[in-house]
Amino acid sequence: MEFIVLLKQVPDLAEELEIDADGTDLARDWLSYVTSEWDEYALEEALQLRDQAGGSVTCLALDTGSVDELLATCLARGADRVVKVGSFERQPASHVAAAAFAAALRDMPHHLVLTGVQAIDDLDGQVGPLVATLLDLPHVSVVTHIAVGPDGRTATVHQEYAGGVVAELEVDLPATLGVQTSRETPRYAPVSRVRQLMKTMEVGSVEVSADGGAGLVIEAMSVPEVSATAEMIAGSPDAIAERIAAILAERGIGKAAVR
Amino acid sequence: MQRELPVIKVDGVTELEHAVVEGVDISGHWNRMFTQRSITEYPTEAMDWITGLEGGESLRNCYQCGKCVPVCPVNHVGDYGPRKLNAKVIRGNRLIDDPDLWLCTTCGNCYRVCPKEVNPIQFMPAIREQAVLEGNIPDELSDVFRNLQRTGNPMGESPRKRADWIAGAGVEIPVISQLDRPVDVLWYVSDYTSYHPRGQDAARAMARVLTALGVDFAILGPEERSDGDSARLAGETGLFELLAEQNIKAFSRYEFKRLVVMDPHAYNAFRNRYPALGWEGEVLHYTQFLAPLVDGMRFLSRVELDVTYHDPCYLGRNNGEYDAPRRLLEAIPGIRLAEMPHNRANGYCCGGGGGGMWLDGTVAGHVSERLSERRVREAVATVGTDGTGVLSVACPYEPSRFEDAVKSTGNDGRLVVRDIIELLDQAMQPPAA
Amino acid sequence: MSDDILVLVEHRAGTVLDPTFELLGRARALAAETGGQAIAVVLGSGVDPLVATLGAADRVIAVDDPAFAEFSPSSYQAALVPIVRDRSPRLVLVANTGPGMDVASGLSAATGLALAAYATGVALEGGAPVVTCQLYAGKIDARVRFADGRGIATVVAGSFPVESGMAAGSPPVERLGPPATDGRIRFKALLAPEAGDVDITRETVLVSVGRGVGEQENLELVEELATALGGAVSVSRPLADAGWLPRSRQVGKSGLKVKPRLYLALGISGAPEHLEGMRGADLIIAVNTDPRAPIFSVAHYGAVADLLDVAQALTRRLAG
Ligand SMILES: Cc1cc2nc3c(=O)[nH]c(=O)nc-3n(C[C@H](O)[C@H](O)[C@H](O)COP(=O)(O)OP(=O)(O)OC[C@H]3O[C@@H](n4cnc5c(N)ncnc54)[C@H](O)[C@@H]3O)c2cc1C
Ligand code: SF4
Ligand code: SF4
């Protein structure tokens, strides 16, 4: 089985986000980047599946000039191969990313393509289903469980809905899946090993011509107002209860709202 | 029994043909002498593997005398000590997936008494590093490692906010990148002091004391990164080196005479580890820097409190500084200093060292109470009997650990926890109206 | 090309789900502005009972076929692509749920319509949709337009009132067939969550108690409140340490990270180790006797009061 994982970096939310002078993008000077959380789950699942079903795990990331550490981390966790795709100044829109990944995958054997179900900067949609459509593969989002069938031709997956309900779906392979969580916490990549791999690893690369865009015009970005301090409710316990009940009713929270 | 008597072998078993003791014939199967048990029946692979690791060598030297067991703080609340670890290893256990691997706080008390110089401060990180490489690592610890890697502090807070505590100190705190001149003291603030609310109290107190003393100082601000020493002791050497590179780069960018640190773990790293990584210079724990300056301190208030002092393992036992903190405490007018039974070289560990700070959940299942809780009981018995007790500390890990323990042992109202710098600051302020 | 607003109907076990009603209500208001129609697209098997609840739509497009008895991403997409191509609507609204994500991005790739994800607001300016999207886990809002004036938006649940899409009415139903299906993804079963102890990371309402609760017996009052709210009880570490509730209920650094819609913090001081586990909750209401408790710095609403008094009063209020 050839498992492919598509990964990207996103701004680290530990940093306070600010908007640039134009008001249409993040101020990127101070940003630091981390691997998108859900992509980490996708990688963990791929590694677990490979260890069960055999095969190999190949990790793909768009070459934005700063993905070596991400790729070394993939290897440190146990991926078999890492590949940089295309050449970009920075992480492009999902549609462009999907086109680049799809182009790379056309010449690469793949049975199961895993990626994070979403990323915090997916303004123009999630990459998984975009890639799937471009390659004419079936795709399932919000996957919480994956089992590859004994013949390696199908996978049984769980798609998660609200309230803990899941649907069990059977998918013909090859397919792409948007991973919501992995069976285990993504394994830790020891820094010692990552640092060593940064020096010695072999990174494949695929040239792709990626053009086009998201088809969106960003008019403005803004930091939503959040009051730093709580709005205090005064009065007797009954008055407080009354006010809390009203707040909950307003937001449709509580038993009455769980229909 | 006479040796020359004829010996026969029956079914591979050696016995006397005739055994007569004081006239009584005791010949028979029950006096069979079995062949000598040989130590080579033990699997040696585990011990060979550990002593083959850099730092693992001393574990083999243990001769099971047992001196370490009663002084090990973990043994007080559980079943532990290097002797027991050695016994496990000679039975073939590599400790890699044994919970025992994570219980040692590298407090060093066993090493102090061990006649064979068996040293967990060396072999624990060595074995843990292998566990980390094999992916055998408690989730709570790997979360902290990830934070350290990403943000340079164990909480995962924004590195840009590292100096946000400055607001509210009431004095000016220069950031060295904005000074554009050499300073006498580069003050390394450290993690918990920068981000934890109780640590920040200590940082602000320190800023006021330094200012009052007219010290020419500055901080690194957002350029500062964790010293990483506890990560190293918890097995992440690579992470320690990564953080050290970042700090050393920052240190080399500026001119300063000496480095003054709030955190004994940072002190240990800068003093004992950074030279090998390319940075050498004078490093002082803040108590060491301030102790010679007591005569110049102007105390405006009396601090009428019963105070005991907890020696941090990485200032006291592991780096030999017991006096400077006590000199500061003794200088504060009003303070009545009393020692706990475990003090100085025999100080009792708070449980936070060697990664213990981030292993509370893992450790909880193997001990009857936290070390911090035990230590707080000791402090209460020493100074907390009439409700005016202070447990004074000199390590930023401790306020959060001990204050939590004060609550969980039901000692609210009997004991408060204060960094020495907070007590100094209090005494240097005019009395509260 | 049309000025219609298309809404993909999401349904499960014979019921149209709330997010769809939210979208229908919004579509109706938007269609009134564009001069087009609010069109509900329902794919299912035996759809009449579903259609009967779609009174808020101006028109319903129904594909009724056993192949759509249950959700399948591939079949949905196969059927939807031609519908969207034919109608060329101004806007397609899809709920940002699992099935919604499956369908919307694929639809975008297949039809070339642009897509705006994580929408929390949709309006019209000069007849063209303007979408407010929530990025970076809610830390940034982006206002976007579609470059060619039409597109798809996936909308976060809770963005619009459900009631607005629940109007009575019997819109004309256009039945399509035979539908295109794609059987590469097959529905097998719907699995209900496991019974057993509570998974607090999945609860939408958590009544969380700390040491302020005082005695173990008092937990009963808290349990009653949680039941009245349809949620579960979680705790700060000291209570888990004491064994009053299992560790699986502990929120925080050494416990679990939770993100419920409501986190009601009762008698929790708000140590950073605790805040780490819950500050991402949508709505935090804190009750504490100490007006300076740090929990108030992350809470949206706070009350300085005895938690037992408030818990009892609120339970009474919800019951009555
Ligand atoms: C390494 C480490 C890891 C930790 N991990 C966690 C963790 O995962 N989760 C966690 O929760 N903690 C954790 N802690 C502990 C944490 O530091 C705090 O000690 C703990 O969260 C305090 O719990 P609490 O708020 O319930 O208790 P307290 O801090 O004692 O607060 C009780 C609060 O109740 C209020 N109160 C009292 N009576 C009433 C009343 N009648 N009505 C209303 N309010 C009242 C008080 O004003 C006070 O604010 C950790 C600590 C350490 C050192
Ligand atoms: S004190 Fe040293 S030699 Fe004695 S049992 Fe402990 S480790 Fe072994
Ligand atoms: S270093 Fe301290 S905790 Fe570790 S074994 Fe020795 S005495 Fe025990």
Structure description:
The complex is a heterotrimer of chains A (259), B (433) and C (320). Chain A is an alpha/beta fold and 259 residues long. Chain A has two domains: 2-206, HUPs (Rossmann fold), CATH 3.40.50; 228-259. Chain A contains six helices and 13 strands. In chain A, the strands form two sheets. A nine-stranded mixed sheet of chain A has the order 9-8-7-10-6-1-4-5-11. In chain A, strands 2-3 form a two-stranded antiparallel ribbon. In chain A, α2 crosses α5 (191-200) and α3 (94-106) crosses α4 (127-135). The radius of gyration of chain A is 21 Å and the shape is globular. Chain B is of the alpha/beta class and 433 residues long. Chain B folds into three domains: 45-133, Fumarate Reductase Iron-sulfur Protein, Chain B, domain 2, CATH 1.10.1060.10; 158-290, Rossmann fold, CATH 3.40.50.1860; 294-428. Chain B is built from 18 helices and twelve strands. Chain B has helices at residues 45-51, 68-71, 73-77, 82-90, 109-113, 120-133, 139-151, 191-195, 197-212, 229-233, 237-253, 264-277, 286-290, 323-331, 360-364, 371-383, 398-408, 420-428, and strands spanning 7-10, 13-16, 20-21, 24-25, 183-188, 217-219, 256-261, 282-285, 306-309, 336-337, 389-393, 415-419. In chain B, α9 (197-212) packs across α18 and α16 (371-383) packs across α17 (398-408). With 320 residues, chain C is of the alpha/beta class. Chain C folds into two domains: 5-176, 3-Layer(aba) Sandwich (Rossmann fold), CATH 3.40.50.620; 200-318, Rossmann fold (3-Layer(aba) Sandwich), CATH 3.40.50. Chain C is built from eight helices and 17 strands. Chain C has a nine-stranded mixed sheet with strand order 9-8-7-10-6-1-4-5-11. In chain C, β13, α5 (219-229) and β14 (232-235) form a beta-alpha-beta unit. In chain C, α5 runs parallel beside α8. The radius of gyration of chain C is 23 Å and the shape is elongated. The N and C termini of chain C lie far apart (53 Å). The chains are: A alpha/beta (259), B alpha/beta (433), C alpha/beta (320). At the A-C interface, α3, α4, β7, β8 and β9 of A face α3, α4, β7, β8 and β9 of C. β13 (231-232) of chain A pairs parallel with β17 of chain C. Bound molecules: flavin-adenine dinucleotide and iron/sulfur cluster (2 copies). One iron/sulfur cluster is lined by residues 72-74, 80-82, 104-110, 120 of chain B.
